[in-house]
């Protein structure tokens, strides 16, 4: 049977040829910023592939064994099966260390790609109608990947990740009324217990990846294909039009090359730059904490929040409520994720804008939104930097208390100052654009007039340049 006959027979019984034909001709924007989300997508592919490899050798058990592997400094040391199998992957399995490091690096890039993609969508306003659902799914993906990164980081049961689990246990126990139950359900009893690693393993390789495998195609394929692609303003482009190359063959060739680039960069990082050398930390011992312990970058803001919070607590009905843990562990991430999730709806309510938007904003054209975005970055950045206040104090010979107070003040004032500076910069850039429209572009050519005065020659804007500047609020589709 010919291939065309087989395809026609399948289409008659299953359908989908018409949808596939439309999908192959769907236009994709050529702007480089639209590929930022692809970084996260292809890093996730590398995470899946390397993760499958690691599951063949990792043993998620807390049973104590005596290590007798290839790493000589730890021979004869009592450790959990999880830590021993992680050492075996690193030193005894061919290619195991490369796979471990690729898995770790690709997770870091995955989260970094999500953050950059999210910021691009926020500053350009692509979260507006009809993309609110896709925005909410993206925020949920951000939270799930952060949580799964924490779980995966804790699986080797080394001294550094064990300290993180100790913090997680303390956060759960501090939750009023239900905290001890939450800790018992996750840890199976007193810390560290015998159940935490197997339970984290199930969450890390089954539950959360299953959710990601549902949400990522919904976010990146289903909703994207159902909606018109967003694009920046340019000459001849309107809110109901799409300008770009078709999915096949142009975009599919571009995105396939991008997949190879992401995988290549991850492999290069894993080969050249060491990450998470668990053999240097040793097995987890509850009585030991290594100096200068730092989590992966995406959990740094929670670490900073815990370090900056004063030791506040109060007693109510015979129970002690530890605000010094509750506020940084719940309020700090709550502000971040709740603010991200609700912002599209808050902006729509305040602006009374319920129209469909397919053209993107330039950040300078929405100074308040841009100011809020930069304030959020400063809020996150101060908390992230404060997570290393002890390292900063030790290396720069500054008092730890002084460093902590500097970060506390910066956390309160930094976002406010960043918002106002950004807003004023956006207004100044708008004024510059208006001057360009009215007077043209400076050429640098100075001429002397008949009366002896010197003036600079200015050329008028081209139609392409004027199309970008002259219409900051194009009329949206109202359907």
TrEMBL record:
SUPFAM superfamilies the record matches: a domain/subunit of cytochrome bc1 complex (Ubiquinol-cytochrome c reductase), Transmembrane di-heme cytochromes
GO annotation terms (biological process): respiratory electron transport chain
Name the UniProt record assigns to this protein: Cytochrome bc1 complex cytochrome b subunit
Transmembrane region(s): 39-58, 104-123, 135-155, 167-189, 201-225, 258-280, 316-345, 366-386, 398-419
Taxonomic path: Bacteria, Bacillati, Actinomycetota, Actinomycetes, Streptosporangiales
GO CC list: plasma membrane
Membrane topology type: Multi-pass membrane protein
Gene Ontology molecular function terms on file: metal ion binding; oxidoreductase activity; quinol-cytochrome-c reductase activity
Occurrences of domain Cytochrome b/b6 N-terminal region profile (ranges): 6-232
Membrane among keywords: yes
Main location as per UniProt: membrane
Recorded catalytic activity of this chain's protein: a quinol + 2 Fe(III)-[cytochrome c](out) = a quinone + 2 Fe(II)-[cytochrome c](out) + 2 H(+)(out)
Compartment(s) where it occurs, according to its Swiss-Prot or TrEMBL record: Cell membrane
PANTHER family documented for this protein: CYTOCHROME B
Cofactor requirement: heme
Listed EC numbers: 7.1.1.8
Statement: the UniProt record of this protein carries the keyword Cell membrane: yes
Pfam family, one: Cytochrom_B_N_2
Enzyme class: translocase
Database matches in InterPro entries: Cyt_b/b6_C_sf (IPR036150), Cyt_b/b6_N (IPR005797), Cytb/b6-like_sf (IPR027387), Di-haem_cyt_TM (IPR016174)
Annotated coiled-coil segments of the chain: none
Keywords: Cell membrane, Electron transport, Heme, Iron, Membrane, Metal-binding, Respiratory chain, Translocase, Transmembrane, Transmembrane helix, Transport
Organism for this UniProt entry: Nonomuraea rubra
Gene3D superfamilies: Cytochrome Bc1 Complex, Chain C
